[in-house]
Specification:
The chain is α+β, with helices and mostly antiparallel strands. It contains 13 helices and seven strands. The strands form two sheets. It has a five-stranded mixed sheet with strand order 2-3-1-6-7, sandwiched between helices. A two-stranded antiparallel ribbon has the order 4-5. Strand 4 and strand 5 form a beta hairpin.
Length: 388
Amino acid sequence: MRQVPCFQHVNSVYTRDYVTKRKGDTLFREFLKRLSPARYDEYYEAVGARNRVNMAVFVVMCMIVAVTNLISQIVIMRTQGFMGNVLLIALYAVLAVVVFVVYRRQQHVSTLGVYLIQAPVMLVGILMGTVLDPNQPAVTFLLLIVTLPLFILDKPWRVIAYETGAVALFILLCFAVKDYEIVKSDLIHIVGFYISTVVITLFLLADRFDAIEGYALLQGESEHDELTGLKNRRALNAERDLFLRMPVCVAMADIDLFKNYNDNFGHTVGDKVIAYFATTLVDEFGHDHCYRYGGDEVLVVVPDCEPDMFEAGLKRCQQVLDSYTINGQPWPLSFSCGFAHGQARNSAELTRMSELADELLYEAKHAGRHTIIGSEFASSAPNSSPLS
């Protein structure tokens, strides 16, 4: 199998399934599979994206709750614990800035960011139920220990460790500053809340990972061709920014006289011909750079590749297809190809490169088929023009 090393693709969405039932598996084993830490690693980017949203929602929601709770404590309950809410409101104003920075500039630390934002909030809740108001049973902390973990999407053991650490610190401070009778009341409540929180957390994490995996599978299906497994035009539109502002080769390849295969052997054989054609191109250039453009046309887009090396790869594909067989009989499969090489400064120019490759493809067809024609693409945009 020949591949450009930096273009190898691992399409794990289609090779791993953590929710498929196997004979003899128990319900508990299935549940543990759904909580596998490997799912976090598998969908790391999707998890990070959801945690970034959770951070923003968390800050806004907690600001509203803190203000409401402060008003309630001052006007209705008249307890001394209201200072904790004052601290929370001040804290959320700072966290709003932190969220903005993480959300816009530090996306790769988003999961850690959720913990960093929640830690001071949880700490203030612990202090409100102990040091700041030692004469009253804890209420705010019980609410926080149930609600805060709901905003975290992470490996289960880390979320449970976070919850356990918060409960342990709360219990230690209870014994340090509260009367024994109040401590007994708090312990009775915190044990029940802690167990409930752990169970709820595990079930919600399993369901949320299921949702992420389901979305990834649907996204993969919507961006891949069913017959060949190649990515389609929708995927190309989503990925075109990856090929901008760098040297790139864009080829449009088309099977010669493809209609004859359907007419002589039927559409089943025709489908196999297209699939083999696609596989040959993927073996040479990698899955990440091959797109089924329509019918028997395949678009190949390879960045940072010399035109001579690119053309040599296309010729190797032609040599492989020369030995194609149908029903055990030799039946050479040929294709024509046009390719453009150059640098696209924006999406419009990348589209123009593909159009140039398509024009060169038809020149190759008219030149006698089984032909490759390449040409340099000249950008019309000045160096100082803005990039789109």
